[in-house]
Design brief:
95 residues; two-stranded antiparallel ribbon; mainly alpha; single chain; 64% helix; 3 helices
């Protein structure tokens, strides 16, 4: 069982999360009440992704990994809720 957050593991999850952010599409109409949810989830995912990069640069792999997981959690929650399209099961838990 792995008990370390390695450089390789971090790089893998940075790639997956970045690719997911680029691939996802908002699935609700601009005037839908759920558009505010979609925007909020996307902003949170992007913010946590930026936080992950910040902590990675500081050498804090634990916090960087946690931030990546939060970022991807917002992405997957948006797909599950139906505010994002996410068909690639490599990138999205509910695609």
């Amino acid at each position: 069982m792995e008990r370390e957050i390695t450089e390789e593991k971090l790089q893998k999850y940075f790639r997956i999360t970045e690719e997911a952010l680029k691939a996802l599409e908002v699935a609700v109409h601009e005037r839908s009440l759920l558009m505010a949810v979609a925007r909020d989830f996307l902003e949170m995912a992007r913010s946590y992704f930026e936080d992950a990069k910040y902590y990675y640069e500081k050498g804090d792999y634990v916090t960087a990994f946690a931030a990546l997981n939060y970022a991807h959690g917002f992405i997957d929650a948006g797909v599950r809720l139906g505010v994002f399209k996410g068909e690639d099961d490599r990138l999205f838990a509910f695609g």
